[in-house]
Design a protein that fits this description.
Layout (H helix, E strand, L loop, with lengths): L22 H16 L5 E5 L5 H7 L8 E5 L8 H10 L5 H9 L7 E4 L5 H4 L5 E6 L5 H14 E10 L7 H13 L3 E5 L3 E5 L4 H12 L4 E8 L2 E8 L30 H9 L2 H14 L1
Parallel strand pairs: 1-2, 1-4, 2-3, 4-5
Antiparallel strand pairs: 5-7, 6-7, 8-9
Helix pairs in contact: 6-7
Amino acid sequence: MANPQQTYTYPGELSDVPGWFPPLDQMLFTWFLDRQRARGLQGDLLELGAYLGKSAILLGRHRRGDERFTVCDLFGGEAPDGANRAETAKSYGSLTRRAFERNYLSFHDELPRVIEAPSSVVPSEVAPRSCRFVHIDASHLYEHVRDDIGAARELLVPDGIVVLDDFRSEHTPGVSVAVWEAVLNRGLRPVCLSTQKLYGTWGDPGAVQEELLEMLRGRADCGLSVQEAAGHRLVRARAKGMRPVEFPKSRHYVEPAPEPAPAPARRRSPVRRVAVDLLPPIVTRAVRRTLASRA
């Protein structure tokens, strides 16, 4: 990936922003946030780990009234320990706050509240029981994810939703351990699982799961299965040719130039048609050369 400080193109559409935010999760984010609005659930939005802003841009569209949207990321700054420094250097070496802000402001008039620091500072920066939606996509190290989940529990309002990224990825076993530990021992109740993310709550998931199941069963572009494990109903969704959600274009969007009309086919003269249809190839080539020299 090119360093955003060296070469930069402003995004015209959400799909132009680099990052791992597939259509299935775009759809699920939108559904949960729209459901919260329809039910009048009040609260702030929080994202831990923003990368270049793809999911933050979608989240920011759902901030209402005087609600606050907070984003916390190191943005290439000093990590709290050696393991985190190594992880950041390997996976996010090109990340800068400036690139995030340019992407975000391509779609919004103002930035969210940005905390450029480890996610461990969030409990002292965000009020308890103030958030209705928390997206955790910061460190992949077990100890950090465990603490981020603990923070989310204290920050969410009743029936708020936490989304945990990379809970099943091959390269992030620390996330998997922390997430399933929270499900088995810390009261987290899964609402649904996508290919990349677990959506959960510390409230009762029954009502939201029933509404979600009804919605998913009505979509031809989404596969669905329901399983039981350790006393939890696990709703698993998977994309089947799903398109990205409809999202407003950025202020930098440029309509693609129309395709040029094909040039009209040249009509062959009667002599050319006879040459092609009746004469041997070597004679046809000679006739074409003669006709071309006369043109």
